[in-house]
Amino acid sequence: MPSVIIATADDLALPLEEQVVRTSAALDTHGHIVALAPAEPADPARRRLHTVRSALEADRIAIVPLALPPLARTLLGEQLRQLSGTDLGPGVLAGAARLLTHYLHAGALLGSVAKLDRVPVGVGDHVRSLVPGRHFAVLAHPEPYLATADPGSVPPGPGYQTQLAVAGRGVDPGWVTGPLAAAWRTQHLREIPLPGDSARWWGTAKLVEFTAYIADIGMLYQLVTSVRRDTCPWCGLEVIGDQCLFCDTRLGTRSAPGRHAAAAGPARPAVPAPATAPAKGRTAAVEPPRRPQLEPHKR
């Protein structure tokens, strides 16, 4: 069943009427939409998505709120576009948007933390922000971390093979591409453009944003298919997690010995060996720009 993956942010906003028309056309063409939205309920981009969904009276739009930095959201959208070319249905893809956040390590090298409100910042760090040339290493996901950028000290990273995406300006990226990449045993460094909302998200325009992510489509597919699937009793979609993200129906409590439960506990499932994902006809997807465990979906 075709699906389209989109992500949204304030700088990508279209006039509401045009967005309704384009969304309706995308539904006619692709069948379902998985929209990655900011986590904050009052965020204008997220509220706009709910308005469009209500205007179309469509239960074929899944709005997935995510508390991820901009670069991590971009890469998650890219992963989902890859998975949309396999045999995974829209309900599973929507659940995969939350599942795969487990496997993203996202942070930034900042020139100042004076306006940072995404992780706890102590008084001492605020004072150190006033010192010219001081850089700060910050991790926002999966666990908050903040320290002065030091070659001998890096935040904890993934215990499995990843690639490292780097984007930014105004700060020397040497700490990211050197000590951090080496400590995280990065397979490949990938430089991409800085997302338009990164400066607002991190509280400074002088930053280098980075995200460690799994690039192998076979491994991503195996991670998603290792999770128990159920059929939504209302709309009939195959889903993972405790709720259908299209019609908002709760699936209730269930257990599956020997399988990873989709509403998993605090630990991440182990990363399996790479596998080849079965392909189907490649589905179209629009270009995206935007916690750990599958939390109940909030409208």
Produce the secondary structure layout:
Elements: E1 4-7, H1 16-30, E2 33-38, H2 44-56, E3 61-66, H3 70-83, H4 90-99, E4 105-110, H5 123-128, E5 136-141, E6 145-148, E7 163-169, H6 174-183, E8 189-191, H7 198-202, E9 207-213, H8 217-225, E10 230-231, E11 238-239
Parallel strand pairs: 1-2, 2-3, 7-8
Antiparallel strand pairs: 4-5, 4-9, 5-6, 7-9, 10-11
Helix pairs in contact: 1-2
Number of strands: 11
Strand order of the largest sheet: 6-5-4-9-7-8
Topology-level CATH name of the domain at 105-213: Hypothetical Protein Tm841, Chain: A,domain 3
Overall pLDDT score: 83
The CATH architecture category of the domain at 105-213 equals: 2-Layer Sandwich
Profile the largest sheet. 6 strands, mixed
Under the CATH scheme, which class of the domain at 105-213?
Answer: Alpha Beta
How much beta, percentage-wise?
15-25%
Flag low-confidence runs.
254-267, 281-299
- Kindly name the structural category: alpha/beta
Coarse morphology: globular
Helix content: 25-40%
Helix-strand topology string: EHEHEHHEHEEEHEHEHEE
How far apart the termini lie comes to 24 Å
Number of continuous helical runs:
8
What is the radius of gyration computed over CA atoms, rounded to a whole number of angstroms?
A: 19 Å
Notes on the protein architecture:
The chain is an alpha/beta fold. The protein has a domain at 105-213: Hypothetical Protein Tm841, Chain: A,domain 3 (2-Layer Sandwich). The protein is built from eight helices and eleven strands. The chain has a six-stranded mixed sheet, with helices on both faces. Strands 1-2-3 form a three-stranded parallel sheet, with helices on both faces. A two-stranded antiparallel ribbon has the order 10-11. Strand 5 (136-141) and strand 6 form a beta hairpin. Helix 1 packs across helix 2 (44-56). The protein is globular. The two termini are 24 Å apart.
